[in-house]
Specification:
Number of strands: 3
Number of helices: 8
Shape: elongated
Strand content: 5-15%
CATH superfamily of the largest domain: Winged helix-like DNA-binding domain superfamily/Winged helix DNA-binding domain
CATH class of the largest domain: Mainly Alpha
CATH topology of the largest domain: Arc Repressor Mutant, subunit A
Radius of gyration: 19 Å
Distance between the termini: 31 Å
Number of domains: 2
CATH architecture of the largest domain: Orthogonal Bundle
Helix content: 55-70%
Order of helices and strands: HHHEHHEEHHH
Structural class: mainly alpha
Strand order of the largest sheet: 1-3-2
């Protein structure tokens, strides 16, 4: 077990390079597992992210700009993803009362129900991290927060 075996590379230029490659590889490993779980609900990871953001702000609607600022994937086409959620009746849209240039987006009861079904399968989500104990998870979270705080 280990990165070297997983990607069939025996050496790296240093621990820094190995850590970056390991982080990228692990990101894709985790997202594939979550994507597979979300397939049963016929939503993408980005759609799931938007629904969670909207549930967190409920009952207050958010503009697509505010949603984009909170998204995990800042490169997502938020408007297009919201439109797909609208077609699935998981969100609603209306013109903003205070600024007619903006559109307010809210989660619908169908969207909340879908998130509830996903929440009930929390054990499947948690399996992604099952190899780590509570202390290791705390340590991992601190290290990742520290890495992002590096100012790069």
């Amino acid at each position: 077990m280990g990165l070297e075996k997983d990607i069939q590379q025996s050496s790296f230029s240093g621990q820094n390079q190995k850590a970056v490659i390991n982080l990228i590889y692990t990101y894709h490993w985790v997202t594939e597992r979550i994507k597979n779980m979300l397939l049963e609900e016929d939503i993408t990871l980005q759609q799931y992210n938007i629904l969670r953001i909207l549930r967190g702000s409920d009952p207050r609607p958010l503009s697509t700009l505010m949603i984009r600022e909170r998204m995990l994937d800042k490169m997502s086409d938020t408007s297009r993803i919201v439109d797909r959620l609208l077609l699935k009746k998981l969100v609603s849209k209306r013109l903003c009362n205070t600024d007619k240039r903006l559109v307010d987006v809210s989660i619908t009861k169908e969207g909340k129900a879908m998130l509830q079904r996903i929440d009930e399968r929390d054990n499947e989500m948690n399996k992604v991290m099952e190899m780590l104990n509570e202390e290791e998870l705390i340590s991992l979270n601190k290290l990742l927060d520290k890495l992002r705080g590096s100012g790069y």
